[in-house]
Design goal:
8 helices; 14 strands; LigD_pol_dom; DNA polymerase domain-containing protein; 4-stranded antiparallel sheet; 6-stranded mixed sheet; 281 residues; globular
């Protein structure tokens, strides 16, 4: 589809336009497609750019949405959900000023059996980046000890997301309970470093191991999605050696050299589907 106003600046400071965002998605689409197609979505829209007055989350259709943004009813409560089937869907999202694409942890065909676990490492303000990197590697070590596969991506913000690829067997309650227990165990083993509690007070000087992304209807930012940050960062899949070598959560941005270079190397999540393992309740 053709964009209207392709030169509209969505990220004024970074100089990224609607066309620039669409070009980004065209470049990453071969790697991104399987993580966003046929999954319920939540959309962060900024029709006037991220510095504009309009900035809102959207989970339901609105008048004038392109047909490439597909509607379905949630089988549990009939609530309207949105998803896309192909790149035309991504283009339609860009057209309406979507600056972040968030996904459920399941597909529309298996909505009650999640196919991933997400641990979002959210550090308190002022924590050293080395603390965040060490915590991310600690999550990996603990998952390895449990025999669970894991991959990692930058958040595009302050932390990292560690993902466990699942075979869609366990229900949401089982998955969320596991994620909660895992985060709580980290807090109990090192209460000076970690918290499993959402409150700002509990986070003081600590890293919040956010397990709350693993509830039905909760979302996390999609791999390769742009972020509504001034420098147009991207949530970027990376390798564990890159984390060990100090890659930063905001190192990749639209049109930036690190992202361009990463797309010329092997896909760090190439084996994502092969890694999937059932979670035992």
């Amino acid at each position: 589809m053709d964009l209207s106003h392709p030169d509209k600046l969505l990220w004024p400071e970074a100089g990224v336009t609607k066309q620039g965002l669409l070009d980004h998605y065209a470049a990453v689409w071969p790697r991104m497609e399987r993580f966003v197609v046929n999954r319920p979505l939540a959309l962060l829209r900024a029709p006037d750019g991220i510095a504009g007055k309009q900035r809102f989350f959207q989970k339901h259709a609105s008048p004038g949405m392109h047909e490439a943004i597909v509607k379905m009813a949630d089988p549990e409560d009939g609530e309207e959900l949105l998803y896309i089937k192909d790149f035309n869907g991504i283009a339609a999202l860009v057209q309406i000023g979507v600056v972040e694409i968030h996904i459920w942890g399941c597909t529309i065909d298996a909505i009650d059996t999640p196919d991933q676990i997400v641990f979002d490492l959210d550090p308190d303000e002022g924590l050293d980046m080395n603390d965040v990197l060490a915590a991310t590697l600690d999550v990996r070590r603990r998952l390895d000890e449990l025999g669970l596969p894991n991959v990692v991506k930058t958040s595009g913000g302050k932390g990292f997301h560690v993902i466990v690829p699942l075979k869609p067997k366990a229900d949401w309650k089982t998955v969320k309970t596991f994620a909660h227990d895992f985060a709580e165990a980290m807090e109990q083993s090192d209460p000076d470093k970690y918290t499993a509690t959402l409150s700002k007070k509990a986070r003081t000087g600590r890293i919040f191991i956010d397990y709350l992304r693993n509830a039905r209807g909760s979302t996390t930012v999609a791999p390769y999605s742009s972020r509504a940050k001034p420098n147009a960062t991207v949530s970027m899949p990376v390798t564990w050696p890159e984390v060990e070598n100090g890659v930063g959560p905001a190192d990749f941005s639209i049109g930036g050299k690190p992202l361009e270079k990463a797309l010329k190397t092997a896909d760090p999540w190439a084996d994502f589907n092969k890694l999937r393992k059932a979670l035992r309740g």
